[in-house]
């Protein structure tokens, strides 16, 4: 029988890595869940999040120690804290922690690095 061994998705990359004015570091996002509110339940989801609005496209909203991250229309990622009690009555909530890898690119050359990855 195969023996499964937990490893970092960044294993072998020697992070943190600094080259010129850019630095790439791995970040532990903590626990994470995908959240997809059921049609017509967006207001109930917002209430359970303490009245916070769901993030607009490309936005990340703070929620206590956690973050609610927009990932697609009607889909969000709750990272850094567990979902509130009762959320699953108003949204599809699926644990994502084992499949999540987060890296931070920072420094004076970070935009230049990202520009190389995007076609003109």
Question: How would you briefly describe this protein structure?
Answer:
The chain has helices spanning 42-48, 110-117, and strands at 17-19, 22-27, 32-37, 60-63, 66-72, 75-79, 91-95, 102-106. It is mainly β.
Task: Say which CATH homologous superfamily of one domain is assigned.
Answer: Heterotetrameric sarcosine oxidase
What is the typical, i.e. mean, pLDDT?
88
Number of strands: 8
The parts where pLDDT drops under 50 for at least 5 residues are: none
Q: Tally the helices: what do you get?
A: 2
Radius of gyration: 17 Å
End-to-end separation in angstroms reads 49 Å
Structural class: mainly beta
Write the CATH fold name of one domain.
Answer: Alpha-Beta Plaits
Strand order in space, largest sheet:
4-5-6-3-7
Could you walk me through the main structural features you see in this protein, from its secondary elements to its overall organization?
It contains 2 helices and 8 strands, in the order βββαβββββα. The model has no long low-confidence stretch (mean pLDDT 88). The radius of gyration is 17 Å and the shape is globular. A 5-stranded antiparallel sheet has the order 4-5-6-3-7, with no helix packed on it. It has a 3-stranded antiparallel sheet with strand order 1-2-8. A hairpin with a 2-residue loop joins β5 and β6. The protein has a domain of 73 residues: Heterotetrameric sarcosine oxidase (Alpha-Beta Plaits), CATH 3.30.70.1520. The longest helix has 8 residues. It is mainly β and 120 residues long.
